[in-house]
C-alpha cells in the first residue's frame, strides 16, 4: 500500500508521514457557515490559547519531524497560564484530552453520516407517502429515485469509511486507538447538524479540488495564482526548488499540489480535520486516475432539474496524485496558520485562495503574512470576503471592506503590483443546480519590498 502523499518529498520514497506537533482541540473547516466551536464551559483564556494552537501537525513525505511545538508555542502557553488560577495544573494533559476528544468527534461524524443521510431520505419518503394515493400514482419515479439515493448513501459511506480507516495512524507520533467503523453503531452519538454540514461541504470539496467537474472552478481560482507564481519565479531564471511557497487554508490540497508539481517547494497548511482526513486519503491512499466515486449532490433536495442530477456521480482524483516529480519538496502542516507560522522572513511567496475571510481579524492575517514573507517576497491572494465568523454568536469577527483591507496592506508597507477587482468564480458549484452562487473576487499580488523605507528616520511599522 502506498503510504502518505502529502508532502515534503525530501526522500525519493513515495511516502509521507504525518506527525503531530501541537494539539488539536477544535476545528474550522472554513467553509461558508462553518466555524470554530467554542467550549464555553472551559476557562476562556485556555480555550483561546488552545484554539490558536490547534493541531500543529506536519505531513511530509518520507522522514520524521520533531514532536515539539513550533518555536514560541510553549513560551506563549507559559505566559498565558501564568497567574491564571483556573488552570494551574498540567495544561498539556487537558489539551491532550481535548485534542483526542476532538479527533473522535470528527470520526464520530464520519461514522454517523450513514444514519444522518438515510434519515433525511426517510423524511422525503414519508412526505411522499403522506400524499393521496392518486397523487402518488402520478409520480411513479419517486420511490425508485429514493431507492437510488439510498444506494448512493451506502456508496458514500464506504468511501468515508475508507477515508477514516487508518486516520488513527495519520500522525506518526500519535495513536488514537482503533477505529472500528462497524463497532458500537448502536452507541454512536448523533452528530450535530453543524458537523454534518461540515462533512457534506468537505465531500463537495472533492469536486472542486480533485475531479474533472471542478476543472472550470480551478481554472478560475487556482490558475491566476499559479500563473503569477510562474511569472515571478520563472523556472528558466531560478531554481523552483529554492522558492518556498506557502498555501494557508489549503483545503484538500490541490493548489499546493499543483504548485509543487511545477517544482516549487510548497507547503500547504490546513486546520480542519475534515479536510485533513480527506486530503490524506486522496494524496496518500488513492492510486490511479478517477478510481474513486462519490455522490456529492445527493444531499441537495431543492433546485434539481432532473432527479438524475441529484444522483450523478463524481469521480476522483482526476490526476494521479502520486505523480509529483521525484524529490519534489511538498509538505503540509495541520493547525492554525497564525500559530504555526511565526518565523520572520521565511517565505518567498504566500498564496491565499478563498482564505483571508476565515479570519476573526483579517488584519492579524495581513500582519502574519507581512512578517513571514522574505523581503522581496510576494503575497498572492484571490477570493471574496464572506466573513466566516460574521454570524457566529460569541465569536470575534472584524468585517472589513476590500477598500479597508487594501488600505491596511499598503500601510504595512506592501506594494500592490497586480490588482483585479472583479474575478468571477464559484466555490464547490453544482453546475446542474437551479441555484448558483457567483463570487466576484478580488485578486492581487502584493510585494514586501526588498528594502523597507524608513519613515522620518524610524523603521516602518511592523518591519
Ligand atoms: C473556504 S476554504 C478554501 C480552501 C482552499 N483554499 C480552496 O480554495 O478550495 C478555507 C480553508 O481555510 C481553512 N482554515 C480556516 N482557518 C484556518 C486557519 N486559521 N489556519 C489554517 N487553515 C484555516 C479551512 O479549514 C478551509 O479549509
UniProtKB/TrEMBL annotation:
<keyword id="KW-0808">Transferase</keyword>
<keyword id="KW-0539">Nucleus</keyword>
<protein>
    <recommendedName>
        <fullName>Carnosine N-methyltransferase</fullName>
        <ecNumber>2.1.1.22</ecNumber>
    </recommendedName>
</protein>
<comment type="function">
    <text>N-methyltransferase that catalyzes the formation of anserine (beta-alanyl-N(Pi)-methyl-L-histidine) from carnosine. Anserine, a methylated derivative of carnosine (beta-alanyl-L-histidine), is an abundant constituent of vertebrate skeletal muscles. Also methylates other L-histidine-containing di- and tripeptides such as Gly-Gly-His, Gly-His and homocarnosine (GABA-His).</text>
</comment>
<dbReference type="GO" id="GO:0005829">
    <property type="term" value="C:cytosol"/>
</dbReference>
<comment type="similarity">
    <text>Belongs to the carnosine N-methyltransferase family.</text>
</comment>
<dbReference type="InterPro" id="IPR029063">
    <property type="entry name" value="SAM-dependent_MTases_sf"/>
</dbReference>
<keyword id="KW-0489">Methyltransferase</keyword>
<dbReference type="GO" id="GO:0035498">
    <property type="term" value="P:carnosine metabolic process"/>
</dbReference>
<dbReference type="InterPro" id="IPR012901">
    <property type="entry name" value="CARME"/>
</dbReference>
<keyword id="KW-0963">Cytoplasm</keyword>
<dbReference type="Pfam" id="PF07942">
    <property type="entry name" value="CARME"/>
</dbReference>
<keyword id="KW-0949">S-adenosyl-L-methionine</keyword>
<dbReference type="GO" id="GO:0005634">
    <property type="term" value="C:nucleus"/>
</dbReference>
<feature type="region of interest" description="Disordered">
    <location>
        <begin position="66"/>
        <end position="94"/>
    </location>
</feature>
<feature type="compositionally biased region" description="Basic and acidic residues">
    <location>
        <begin position="72"/>
        <end position="94"/>
    </location>
</feature>
<dbReference type="GO" id="GO:0032259">
    <property type="term" value="P:methylation"/>
</dbReference>
<dbReference type="GO" id="GO:0030735">
    <property type="term" value="F:carnosine N-methyltransferase activity"/>
</dbReference>
Amino acid at each position: 500500500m502506498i503510504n502518505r502523499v502529502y508532502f515534503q518529498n525530501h526522500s525519493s520514497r513515495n511516502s509521507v508521514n504525518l506527525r503531530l506537533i501541537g494539539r488539536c482541540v477544535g476545528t474550522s473547516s472554513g467553509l461558508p457557515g462553518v466555524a470554530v466551536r467554542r467550549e464555553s464551559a472551559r476557562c476562556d483564556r485556555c480555550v483561546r490559547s488552545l484554539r490558536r494552537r490547534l493541531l500543529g501537525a506536519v505531513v511530509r513525505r518520507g522522514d520524521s519531524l520533531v514532536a515539539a511545538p513550533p518555536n514560541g508555542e510553549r513560551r506563549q502557553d507559559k505566559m498565558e497560564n501564568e497567574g491564571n488560577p483556573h488552570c494551574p495544573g498540567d495544561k498539556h494533559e487537558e489539551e491532550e484530552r481535548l485534542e483526542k476528544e476532538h479527533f473522535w468527534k470528527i470520526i464520530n461524524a464520519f461514522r454517523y453520516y450513514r444514519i444522518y443521510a438515510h434519515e433525511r431520505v426517510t423524511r422525503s419518503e414519508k412526505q411522499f407517502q403522506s400524499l393521496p394515493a392518486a397523487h402518488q400514482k402520478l409520480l411513479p419515479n419517486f420511490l425508485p429515485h429514493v431507492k437510488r439515493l439510498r444506494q448512493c448513501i451506502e456508496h458514500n459511506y464506504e468511501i468515508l469509511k475508507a477515508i477514516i480507516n487508518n486516520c488513527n495512524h495519520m500522525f506518526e507520533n500519535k495513536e488514537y486507538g482503533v477505529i472500528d467503523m462497524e463497532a458500537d453503531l448502536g452507541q454512536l452519538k448523533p452528530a450535530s447538524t453543524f458537523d454534518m454540514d461540515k462533512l457534506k461541504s468537505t465531500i463537495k470539496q472533492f469536486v472542486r479540488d480533485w475531479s474533472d467537474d471542478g476543472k472550470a472552478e480551478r481554472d478560475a481560482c487556482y490558475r491566476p495564482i499559479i500563473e503569477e507564481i510562474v511569472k515571478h519565479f520563472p523556472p528558466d531564471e531560478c531554481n523552483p526548488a529554492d522558492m518556498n511557497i506557502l498555501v494557508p487554508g489549503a483545503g484538500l490540497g490541490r493548489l499546493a499540489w499543483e504548485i509543487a508539481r511545477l517544482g516549487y517547494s510548497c507547503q500547504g497548511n490546513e486546520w480542519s480535520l475534515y479536510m485533513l482526513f480527506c486530503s490524506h486519503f486522496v494524496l496518500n491512499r488513492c492510486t490511479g486516475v478517477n478510481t474513486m466515486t462519490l455522490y456529492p449532490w445527493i444531499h441537495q433536495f431543492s433546485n434539481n432539474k432532473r432527479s438524475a442530477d441529484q444522483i450523478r456521480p463524481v469521480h476522483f482524483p482526476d490526476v494521479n496524485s502520486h505523480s509529483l516529480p521525484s524529490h519534489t519538496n511538498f509538505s503540509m502542516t495541520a493547525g492554525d496558520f497564525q500559530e504555526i507560522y511565526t518565523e520572520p522572513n521565511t517565505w518567498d511567496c504566500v498564496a491565499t485562495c478563498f482564505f483571508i475571510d476565515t479570519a476573526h481579524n483579517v488584519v492579524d492575517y495581513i500582519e502574519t503574512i507581512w512578517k513571514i514573507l522574505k523581503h522581496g517576497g510576494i503575497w498572492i491572494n484571490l477570493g471574496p470576503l464572506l466573513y466566516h465568523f460574521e454570524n457566529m454568536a460569541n465569536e470575534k469577527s472584524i468585517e472589513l471592506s476590500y477598500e479597508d483591507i487594501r488600505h491596511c496592506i499598503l500601510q504595512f508597507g506592501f506594494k500592490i503590483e497586480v490588482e483585479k477587482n472583479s474575478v468571477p468564480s464559484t466555490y464547490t458549484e453544482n453546475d446542474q443546480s437551479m441555484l448558483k452562487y457567483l463570487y466576484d473576487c478580488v485578486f492581487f499580488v502584493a510585494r514586501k519590498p526588498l528594502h523597507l523605507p524608513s519613515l522620518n528616520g524610524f523603521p516602518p511599522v511592523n518591519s
